[in-house]
Amino acid sequence: FQPNSPHARDVRYHLHPYTNLKAHEEQGPLIIERGEGVYVFDDSGKRYLEGLAGLWCTGLGFSEERLAKAAYEQMRKLPYAHSFAHRSHPAVIDLAEKLISLAPDSISKVFFTNSGSEANDTQVKIVRYYNNVRGRPEKKKIIARKGSYHGITLASASLTGLAYAHKFFDLPLDGFLHTEAPHPYHGAEPGESEEDYASRLAQMLDDMIVAEGPDTVAAFIAEPVMGAGGVMPPPATYFEKIQAVLKKHDVLFIADEVICGFGRTGNMFACETYGLKPDMLTVAKQLSSGYLPIAGAMVSDEIYQVLKEGSAEAGTFGTGYTYTGHPVSAAVALETLNIYQERDIVGHVRAVMGRFQERLMALGEHPLVGEARGVGLIGAVELVEDKAGKRNFDAARKIGARAAQLCQEEGVLLRPLANDTVAACPPLIIEPAQVEELFDGFTRGLDRLAGELGV
Ligand code: PLP
Question: Domains plus CATH for the chain?
Answer without folding.
Answer: 31-63+344-453 (3.90.1150.10), 67-342 (3.40.640.10)
